[in-house]
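Much of what follows relies on a compact textual record of a protein's fold. A record is reproduced here so that you can trace the correspondence yourselves:

. . .
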Amino acid sequence: MAIGSKELKPVDLDTFDNERLIEELRRAKEELFNLRFQSATGQLESHGRVRAVKRDIARIYTVLRERELGIRATPVATAAKAAPKAKAAPKKAADAVDTTEKTEETE
C-alpha cells in the first residue's frame, strides 16, 4: 500500500484489521519524520508529500477511533478470530468447577 496517496481511502481502510492499521500508522509516522528531517536540511523535493502523509495519518486515526466507538464495523475476519477465544473461556470455568468438586470429595 502506498502511504500518502489518493488510493488510501476510508473504504480501503475498512478491510484492514486493527493490527495492520497500527502497523500502517507506524510506517506513516516514520515517513513523516523522514520528510520533516529532509525539509529541515533542505533536501525535500516534494512538499505536497508531507501534507498527503499527514492526511493518511488522520484517516487511520479516524478509522481506529470510529471502531473504538462502534461507529464503524471491524472486518469480518477479525470477528471470526474473536469467536473461538470466547468459547475457550467456558471450558476454563468448567475446569474450575471440577477442581472444587474434587476438593470437597477429599475432605
The radius of gyration is 23 Å.
